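Hey, I'm writing a tutorial for new members on how sequence and structure tokens pair up, and I'd like a real worked example in the thread rather than a made-up one. If someone can provide the structure for the chain below, I'll link this post from the tutorial.
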Amino acid sequence: MIRYLAALLLPLAVSAAPAVIEPWPLPAGSAAAQPSLSRGAGGALNLSWIERSGNGHRLKFARYADARWSATRTIAEGDNWFVNWADFPSTTQLPDGTLWAHNLVKSAKGTYAYDVVLYRSSDGGNTWSAPIRVNDDGTPTEHGFATLWPWSKHELAIAWLDGRNTGGGNHDAHAGHGDATGNMMTLRAAVYDGKGRKTAEWPLDASTCDCCQTDAAVTDNGPVIIYRDRDPQEIRDVFTVRHADGRWQTPKAVAADQWHMPACPVNGPALAANGRSLWAAWYTGSGNVPKIRVAYSGNSGGAFLPARTVRTSPDVLGRVDLAADAGGAWLLWSEESGEQSLWLKRFAKTTDHGDKPLRLATLKGHGHGTGFARMQQTARGLYVVWTDVIDGRPVLRGALVK
């Protein structure tokens, strides 16, 4: 395993002398996929993933602290989950140490009828609560692409895409349920207290892309959510919405790509913050050419500097992620041309310049099976996790970039 990973990671060490790459062995078992990372106290990392279990699935969890993995725990398991390559579970940890996780559970027989469900742990992930359904609209429609973050020391915030207005039905090619009557996918957010009770909920955008991931970051001036918007002309550009001055502000476009896309690209944006510095990254096919774009805000998302194109190529898949620290931000994305690969680029305080793009890994898998790689920055370095597919079976891989 170590030798295999070292071979995959070697190109980064060669092309960027300051970077030191180490394989990061993960505790996941066989047939593991859909990893997600979140930060805990003191530089700890929380890893979640999904494993097959008979005719169902298990959501697994382990914590990495002091260069050691904890025992692996099961957050939840079931045979009625909605498991999808792009809409994956996640965890987050509050300042008081409470852990929260989410996944998707079927609500009716329809393929795209499922709910967002939360689980809570107050003992470091050893035991988890019964499921808490986030969307309480009672409709057999699509609810997913959720993002979790701390709202306060003891409270959790969650944002998700909500299909209560769509009426359900087919979901051909992820074109969306929306129609001329305005029955669109929406963006909503809610807050849960320390006992798992919902204390607030807001509708934030009345028309969004149906199947693109959301993301959130907490700045010194409050949280910011990023997502892909959808207007009546099928322009699907990236927007943010901020919570400032005690309320959610009007959503704003990060950049006017003017990407006309009559179907959901299943390719959401990413966001990362450090203090008042905020970076946004996303995939766009504007001009009929795949691109990765980034934008920087120095005032907690109040306004972004003009966006810059990092990569333009037919090989670009997107699937971006961001991680930030006091010195700048890391950008991660995927490409595929004969073989699939993961790429990193480091930026300083703004996006005016950055290091040369670096190949992190070459994968055996292709297409959707590899899902979305995720990463987190700690004082020790940048930790990255991803899914590969070996002999038809998904496996988790990890790396530490110093």
